[in-house]
Write a structure and sequence with these properties.
Length: about 100
């Protein structure tokens, strides 16, 4: 029995890394539904607080030369900028997947 986690030594979880909120994968998608046909690029799954999200959102919008918002933990960039956004988030050492269309 491990005194730390009270599991058998073989199943001890004490040394394991804490997994960030969600599965740690950032998902970038393009969406046009309900927006009058205009595309937006959505960045989901960032395990960041609001302040850090706002900063990253600003960087992404600047890099894309576009407007956008941060809402409910999701960064929105106006227009279809998936490629550039994925590149930038990857450059920060995150795991990024393109999701949806
Ligand atoms: Zn343990």
């Amino acid at each position: 029995m491990c005194p730390g986690c009270r599991k058998p030594q073989a199943a001890c979880i004490c040394g394991q890394k804490v997994v960030p909120a969600g599965d740690g994968v950032v998902r970038v998608s393009r969406e046009t539904k309900g927006r009058g046909g205009k595309a937006v690029t959505l960045v989901k799954g960032l395990a960041l607080d609001e302040g850090a999200l706002a900063v990253l959102g600003k960087q992404l919008r600047a890099a894309c030369g576009s407007g956008g918002t941060v809402k409910d933990g999701v960064i929105e960039v106006q227009g279809d900028h998936c490629e550039r956004v994925i590149e930038m988030v990857k450059a920060q050492g995150r795991v990024v997947k393109r999701a949806g269309g």
